[in-house]
């Protein structure tokens, strides 16, 4: 015999060396997706490092880590973390900017927006008191206003019960004139509006600077007594957080405060707060609560165990096996054709004959794998059809392929 006949006759049995067969569709990630995943992974590590530094009181490092995390991922939530660390560092302008940018994205969780609004009001007021919000941030019309007329306008609003209008008039009068006495008027307006924290910082500024303007001692005494009453009332403004899952991490407005059970009620500002707790294997427990000044509110967190379901959509498996098997068989046919062409007229033992023999073996392997895969698709199809498609028990069916001395074996297994 000569040519392909002789070559194929010599291929009786051969051993599998290495066969790597990818069945179905192989989804390759684009470079952009790979880079995005790498950036997310890096941002996650940076966030965890910043969180650890924040808990340890190392705010400079927390700021550095979270800034890098935000630059890597661009996630708006990092802006809220940055605002928290700016608050700890008393960097009011930076905190205000981070909060404003955060709420611009419109992805603020429930219970957080009210807290942010209250914080922004306090920041604006503290900046005004510290004169960091100067006349350069006012409109041309506001800069042209007469502080004395604004004071009288504020008095009319105040006596008429229009405290927000009085507050606005007196704030502008203070920004334009810097008169310390106006701080006492502002504190009165804040008191009527129930804005205790704003009233507190206003009275503190008034008492600190009023000695320079010769303010009456009786007025200073009244301000001091009112300030002490506010401090005592704010100190009693707390939230008691309880839950049935010991060890769960608790967060107040996304800031970590400890693990359950907490030692004591937490001091909070009199506004709306979002409380959440996390534990592995459980869904996050979340609650939103509005706390009134001078009271202790109780929040009980409830945890639900996560049910991990594995739903396998196997209807696409037969199609993938059909396509994969047909593709591998087609490649085998092409290789076989090339082997035939190579072996035509070549003798055994010649270079052309050896090359044709190797190609024929490869074709044989590919055809076996392709056929077995295709048959596997048929078996899977009939099994699914019999079991009703994606019925839960079909998850116990499995089909396996294994190389053998003579080719490829296919096996079907069902677990009961």
Topology summary:
Elements: H1 3-9, H2 31-55, H3 59-73, H4 77-88, H5 92-104, H6 112-129, H7 140-143, H8 147-159, H9 163-177, H10 181-192, H11 196-209, H12 217-235, E1 238-243, E2 249-252, E3 255-259, E4 266-267, E5 272-278, E6 285-290, E7 296-301, H13 316-343, H14 351-387, E8 397-404, E9 407-414
Parallel strand pairs: 1-7
Antiparallel strand pairs: 1-4, 2-3, 2-5, 5-6, 8-9
Helix pairs in contact: 1-14, 2-3, 3-4, 4-5, 5-6, 6-11, 8-9, 9-10, 10-11, 11-12, 13-14
Q: Would you mind describing this structure in some detail?
A:
- The protein is of the alpha+beta class and 416 residues long.
- It folds into three domains: 31-193 and 208-219, Serine Threonine Protein Phosphatase 5, Tetratricopeptide repeat; 238-301, Immunoglobulin-like (Sandwich); 314-410.
- The chain has 14 helices and nine strands.
- The chain has helices spanning 3-9, 31-55, 59-73, 77-88, 92-104, 112-129, 140-143, 147-159, 163-177, 181-192, 196-209, 217-235, 316-343, 351-387, and strands at residues 238-243, 249-252, 255-259, 266-267, 272-278, 285-290, 296-301, 397-404, 407-414.
- A four-stranded antiparallel β-sheet has the order 3-2-5-6, with helices on one face.
- Helix 2 runs antiparallel to helix 3 (59-73), helix 8 runs antiparallel to helix 9 (163-177) and helix 11 (196-209) runs antiparallel to helix 12.
- It is elongated and about 120 Å long.
